[in-house]
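Listing S7. Sequence submitted for prediction.
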Amino acid sequence: MTEHKLSAEPTHSVWDRSLAPRLHIEPGDEVAFQCVDASGGQVYAGMTTAEYLTIDRTRIHALTGPVWVEGSGPGDVLEIDVLSTRHAGWGWSSVIEGLGFLKDRFREPYLFHWQLDGESTASLAPAVVPVRPFLGVMGVARAEAGAFRTRPPGPFGGNLDVRELCAGSRLYLPVFNHGALFSCGDGHAAQGDGEVCINGIECPLDVTLRFQLHKQQPLAGPIVEASEVAARDSSANAWVVLETGTDLIEAAQAATGRMIALLVSRWGFTEIHAYILCSVALKLRLSQVVNEPVYTVSAALSKQILPDRKLFPIP
């Protein structure tokens, strides 16, 4: 086993199997990746919203790689162990006109800065958000020739935004090209299921990954082997808003909107701050899909994040 280091620059912001690999490794090797934030290093602490609106969005996702894994080829499975993650002490979240799960409601651009204090952040008081860093983007080169923007994920992995991919987890990806051509980036210090405002806590991230190869194993798409040890923030004690309806998206939007209203009315958040908190900490999930045509969506926020409150105090 050999340990490698790969600096962020030069980054790339497309999937393209013709990109020259920046590093060649053997199965079993470990790579310490340096990853800039999703903006490609354009956002900085103290940046104004006006300045943020001028960044070059063709650089979004700024990935580190590609890495060539010797002996890999179409039909193989690449196993990626997330050994460690380290944030740089700061991050950001934003609201962008025309994007986000509630884009019709939140139209005004907004940039929020986070100070990350080890394993938590109190930047959005009175909330204290647990920090659990992970990479939003991990993937291999797509099967198709050409250059493809990184926003849509697929069987190759890519912009999965799966919060379980923190240290201690394992990702399995099908390989479509010789060498696999693995790239990664889009560091998040925390993210809710749904990432409703379009961002988690975006941040630069140093990540150490170990690669294994499984020859000629059928795999239709990504599989995550998550670790409960690493997933310290639990929703076992949580505020859970329930919505039912015949349209899953409308039910999920309604549940998110009601959680925002709850945060505003009971904890004193502004609406925009409540929206951002939901994006980095809310667990937006399907509770049932069998009572068709009516489905249930739950939106849960862990009680450990918020000060204790009685929903309806007794006079």
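Caption to Listing S7: primary sequence and predicted structure tokens for the chain studied. The helical segments are 49-52, 248-267, 271-281. The first helix runs from residue 49 to 52.
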